[in-house]
Specification:
Elements (H helix, E strand, L loop, with lengths): L2 H11 L14 H14 L9 E7 L1 H14 L5 H15 L3 E8 H10 L6 H23 L3 E2 L8 H11 L5 E10 L23
Antiparallel strand pairs: 1-2, 2-4, 3-4
Helix pairs in contact: 2-6, 3-4, 3-7
Length: about 200
């Protein structure tokens, strides 16, 4: 197997796991090391290194999802509230979560230096966020952990609650939250549209 074959096999292995447990077969130190390596080596435009990550485990993870649940379900009633609470309980049941952010101050500072790219830097920041999330997700998968990617931090009220609870800089903008833990069950089947319809090749 070539180096690229091994890498692409890892990419294909990554799946969405909604059913996770509050246990981890991977030591905390290893999870932390994976995240630090991913943050260090994932690319950013102009090498501005704008990505930020918060790792919460155990009781801190419970605190995170408790405040998310309280904030998201505020004002909801009946079956709708029950449904949302049930979905969030699945994430709360995990061992930990990885919170991804982009530091807007870093992006604003580089925009001042290169105003010609004012419209591009937010797009490039999104690219950087996605790359980092994929690197972390795939790495956790290779260690046997299950994870999914959630975006509750996009809600201003949730973002404010998270920033206050964990005393985070106000310039950090949430891009995603990744709850993880040992898988409770296999992921569902994944279907694919024909790749021939999604890739075009032109060569002389």
């Amino acid at each position: 197997m070539s180096a690229s074959d091994a890498y692409l096999k890892a990419v294909a292995t990554r799946r969405t796991h909604y059913a996770i447990t509050n246990k981890s077969s991977v030591p905390d130190a290893k999870i932390e090391a994976i995240i630090k390596e991913a943050v260090k080596h994932s690319p950013t435009s102009f090498n501005i290194q704008s990505s930020r990550v918060v790792l919460v485990i155990g009781a801190e993870n419970t605190k995170l999802w408790k405040l998310i649940t309280e904030t998201v379900t505020k004002g909801l009633e009946g079956d709708h509230k029950t449904h949302v609470e049930g979905r969030l309980a699945g994430f709360s049941a995990g061992y930990g979560s990885v919170l991804f952010f982009e530091d807007q101050k870093v992006i604003d500072d580089i925009t001042v230096k290169f105003p010609v790219y004012t419209n591009e830097f937010p797009v490039w920041s999104t690219n950087a966020a996605g790359i980092l999330q994929h690197v972390v997700w795939t790495s956790l998968t290779l260690e046997g952990l299950g994870a999914s990617l959630q975006h509750y931090g996009a809600k201003p009220e949730v973002a404010a609650a998270i920033h206050q609870a964990f005393d985070l800089p106000t310039t950090w903008t949430s891009t995603a939250i990744m709850p993880f833990g040992d898988p409770a069950s296999p992921p569902g089947e994944k279907t694919f549209t024909p790749v021939e319809d999604r890739v075009k090749v032109f060569k002389a």
